[in-house]
Design brief:
Distance between the termini: 61 Å
Largest sheet: none
Structural class: mainly alpha
Order of helices and strands: HHHHHHHHH
Number of domains: 2
Number of strands: 0
Shape: elongated
Radius of gyration: 18 Å
Length: 175
């Protein structure tokens, strides 16, 4: 009896595994041959699912930035944002390194039009809008990314009380 494969699920699995490779080695550090070898596939099998490295990266971005199948965030909107920020902290440095590697040489217009960047931005905005509503979502996203960058640049000095106070201040504008 032939093996039945859920191609969509397998494609998602490959994208999730490739996302780890991109995070570890960067965008420019990987070619399709190297990715295929690391995933235990032939290069042609990888091309069957993803016609280009950029298409694979787009799928990885969708997987990496999609809301997870974790229990829903609970508590106040500020508590939910703090939980999201805390969760993002661990992989933030490698994610930013990957993003900057990927966009190197692109113009701001090219970045804004890039499907992977649009996908990531849309997923982050949707997640935050689900917590805060649309009125303050962009300001909250700016605070969140800024706080993560400051944490990164300061060697992990995470001023939780100050971040919480800023979230609360912006959220109060939404009331």
């Amino acid at each position: 009896m032939p093996k039945i494969v859920d191609h969509d699920a397998y494609k998602q699995e490959l994208a999730g595994r490739a996302a780890v490779l991109f995070a570890e080695q960067g965008y420019s550090g990987l070619g399709m041959r190297k990715i295929a070898e690391a995933l235990g596939l032939s290069k042609s099998a990888l091309y069957h699912y993803f016609p280009s490295k950029k298409e694979l990266f787009l799928a990885c971005t969708a997987v990496a930035t999609a809301p997870q199948d974790a229990p829903p965030l609970t508590g106040s909107p500020c508590d939910q944002l703090m939980a999201m920020a805390t969760d993002m902290r661990s992989g933030f440095a490698s994610e930013m390194a990957l993003v900057f590697d990927f966009i190197r040489g692109m113009s701001p217009t090219d970045i804004a039009k890039d499907p992977a960047m649009k996908q990531a931005m849309s997923n982050y905005q949707t997640t935050i809008q689900n917590i805060t509503g649309p009125k303050v979502a962009d300001e909250i996203l700016t605070l969140l990314i800024g706080a993560l960058m400051l944490d990164l640049f300061s060697g992990g000095s995470w001023p939780e009380d100050a971040i919480r106070a800023r979230f609360d201040r912006v959220l109060a504008q939404n009331s």
